[in-house]
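User:
Note these tokens:
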Amino acid sequence: MARGQRSTSKVRFLATAVAVMGPVVAVMGALVAPSAASAAQPAAVPTQLCKVLSPLEGGILAFQQEWNQYSGPKGGPTFKTTPGGSGSMQDVANNLATTTGCAIATQKPPQLPIPSSPGGPPGLSALCPLFSPLEGGVASFESAWNAQSGPSGGPTFAVPGNSKGQFPDLAGQMATETGCPASPSSGGGVPAPPEQVCSGFQQFETGAASGGAPAQFVSGVQQIASALGCPAGNGGGSSGGGTGGGTPSPSQLCSGFQQIETGMASGGAPAQLVSGFEQVGAAFGCTAPSGGSTAPSSTGTGGNGNGSVATASSGSGGCTAPSSPAGYWQVASDGGIFAFGNYPYCGSMGGTTLNKPVVGMAGTADKGGYWLVASDGGIFAFGDAAFHGSMGGTTLNKPVVGMASTPDGKGYWLVASDGGLFAFGDAAFYGSMGGTTLNQPVVGMSATPDGKGYWLVASDGGLFAFGDAAFHGSMGGQSLSKPVVGMATDAATGGYWLVGSDGGIFAFDAPYHGSMGGQPLNRAVVAITSTLDSGGYWMSASDGGIFSFGDAQFYGSMGGQHLSQPMVGMAA
């Protein structure tokens, strides 16, 4: 298979998660203030802290499991993943859970590529830039714990210089097992937070104090803020000004939570961390900020007509649009998102139970967000992609099979397999094939450059043009080796390309840049998208393989990697 420039060093989720996990674990030490703890286990970690720590433990466990799936079959080292289980490396996740008392929250394995040495198992040394900051954060946590627990007679970690500690040196274990030295951590090794994070903490502190929150709670929040480098909010001080015992929910407190969550997301914090803060905020009666991580609902079974039914939907927001977009996204049927080049990861539905599978996606104009569409018409919006409505919860004649967005990103169309068309936001309805007998089902759509029209394409290559979309020809009535699975617009000429599941390309008033037709493929092609200048196009196969033609650059792919569910679409 001519997969060409496949990348094997994209560790997007893990790199982001580890970069933030280290500082977060270091910050944990600032909040934990153990009193006279028993020698059997450490003082109880505050419940609100476990809500943040538990998902992070789950992320570490998920990584260990993913590592084992890759390394084990090749004879490489593996992690223990259960107490007493087999494996040459320590179970970091369960050790951390046992030590802190915070149960592991189950996380979906990231299932992303792991750096490897040619022809062999993963090279641990290649992961040191990822492991070392995490080890440094764990070491900071242990040091902070010992400084508070030790003087009061509580248990301590057996770190260097404290050989009598009751708990194992987790950072040391990780360094020994991986061969990666811990990165020095000064003040927790926490990078300067986005201004919005500090502003949120200040509002949170002031709101909590004015709302009568217990002084210990306000003080803990201030310690976290201080560890992040944020000044105390008004009404601060070591006591926090609060002596009550209730659960405050003044508007200022909620505003602070929302700013913290949004700021963390914009600063590149992993979704689990932002979700943890949202859970804490929810405990105080605060809703998540716009674009939060609350999972949208999607129900129904497909349809036709000009839809207008909206259901609540939101993504995990807060990602940044690239100044010079160069990349693409791929989406799997479980809603998992894979970002390549400088295209941002803004969240996904991976790991979330869906009513129906995702079947396609579209990106916003500035590439700072995207929409996913499920076969029941449910819409999931992430980043700066606004939710304009969906068909989720509405009975449809046939399932939705694709979508396209308007040029300004303020609307989108959904298309069903019977040719039914649903328009939302500023997307105008120009007609559909709903209610018309078709030779073969519609499989995709594409919009004209000005957004005043669109094309629908059927699996036999039949083409239906609406609005200002001109008909330049089709493969309808022609014998095809494999069915057509999608199409893309050539913004330069007003023409279009159709692609078959075998990678064959059919160009109509659009230049032919090449295809995979006649080439052996591991899996069928499922989608096509054009470059921003329409000087080329990419194809995505269901196994995540990417094929680049014309001026379309190869930025990486999931080809050859384990996927939970097959790819179904892409956007650029």
